[in-house]
Structures are given as structure tokens and as C-alpha cells.
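#lab-general

N.A. 3:47 PM
ok so I finally got the sequence cleaned up, no stray characters, all 294 residues accounted for. can someone with queue access submit it? mine expired

B.Y. 3:52 PM
send it over

N.A. 3:53 PM
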Amino acid sequence: YEGNLISGNGTGADGMTPGAGITLTDSVDTIGIYGNIIGMNAAKTAALANVAGGININSLTTDTTISIGSNTTNGRNYISGNAQVNGSSGSAGILVGASNVAGVILNIVGNYIGTNGAGTAAIPNYNGGVNIADTSSRVTTTIGDGTTAGRNLISGNSGSGVVITGGNVTINNNLLGTATDGTTALANSFAEIYGNNTIGTSNISYLKISNNIINTLSSGVVGGAILMNIIPWNETNGSLTTDNTWTGRATGSGQNYWWQRYVGMTLTAYGPKACSDGKDNDNDKLVDFPTDPG
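B.Y. 4:20 PM
back already:
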């Protein structure tokens, strides 16, 4: 898939017929998706929604290597505006399901997900930017290749920028909740990164978050930069490294904390400057960082 306008699928007469921009269910050894507009008009200025999401990856029967985008401008995909239409459930910009064969490798590099073509305004995907729902942990997903040119811009989405409920996931050197300049807030509406499952099991076998620029001024109800729920964190299976950059530091409840149930680590060295010691002092299984969210 290269250089295509892939938009408006599933918007039939009733506006309800399911249709993703690209659906991968059976495969060859290698798949490349480069330079496409998925969910917007050709000018990349307005949504032209695919009802069932931008790119859906599920039920692959071959241990495929999939590349979505590259570290060149021509290889960049613009995946935005895949939104709820007339009451349909909608989906994410990129969705990884739980029914793929083991051994799939997914590289998401250099894309704009949730913004206009300039990366300066939101054209949201309805159910988040990237949703890794690989609860069988069969897919190894890398978001960003570690280079500036390979950064994904994942901003302006409804829901969270990245949702992780399963898989082996590395998020490395991306812009999350900012515009292309890395400083102007362009928040995802719930959290920039949201995880909801258990690290170190068959659900989320591994998660590393490193060297990203992450906006802490999320516009959502929760307002967390990174929100982790029911995750016993450990340094063997998960790491949040100190080279992440946190922009827009604000004071006040619900703005700057890493929220983690069943606390497994002290967080003062890993996120924005803490207002307390980052520990669960009142034993309610919620980190006091900077204030106890519960």
C-alpha cells in the first residue's frame, strides 16, 4: 500500500456499514504501508472517516513483518479522522487485535496519527491513535525507530494516544500530545499513553517507554500524561526511562501524575517533578504522585 487516498469506507447509505481503511487478516511474509492518507481528504485538512478504523491488524496466519510508515517524508502515513459515524462504534487509527499468529513484527515509524497534514491541529481518530489490544502477546510492536526522523506524531485523538492492553511494546522517541514542534500542546483527550493489564504475563509481556516528548497537559477528564491501571510494574518486564521529556508541567490535581495500581516502583525519578515522594503512603494502591488521585 503506497501513496493512496484511503478514506470514506463504510459510510454507505445508512452510514453504518463497517469498513476500515486497511484490514490485514491474512498475509505474506512482508507488508509495507507507506505514504498514504487514511481517514482524511486529499488536502489533509478535514476528516473523511473510515467507520471501522484506519488500519486494523487481526487474524494474521503468517509470522509477518509489517512496516507502517518510514523515517522519510514520502513514507509518512497520515492516519486521522477515523471516527464514529451515525452511531457506529468507530475504531482507532491503528488497531492490533488478539487473534494474530505468534511471531508478527509491527514497526510504526514516522506517521502523523490524529492531526492534520501540518501536524498543528487535531483531526481525531475516534477511539484513540494506536490501540495495541494484543492480549495474547503474539505481536512485537515498536512505535518509533529511535531517530528524530522516525518519530510518530500521535496527538489530538479522542481517547488516548497509545492504548496498551497486551503485547510486547516499545515506545521510543515519539511526540505524544504535542504539535510537531514538540512544545505546543495538542493533547489526546484521555491520556497520552494508557495501559490496562498486567505486565510480565501473557497479556503485556514487555513494555518500554523511552526518549519520548510527552505532553502532561492532557485535556481529558483524567488529565494524566501516562495512566497505568492494575499493572504490577517491574524493571525486568517494563521500564519508563529517565530520558523522556515532559512538556507543559502544571500544578494541581490530576495533571501530572503517573497513576499506577498495585505499586511496584518508586516514581520520583521517572516522571515530572513530584510534589510528594511518589510512594503509596496511605496504602490505597494508588501512587501519591504528585497527589493521591484516589
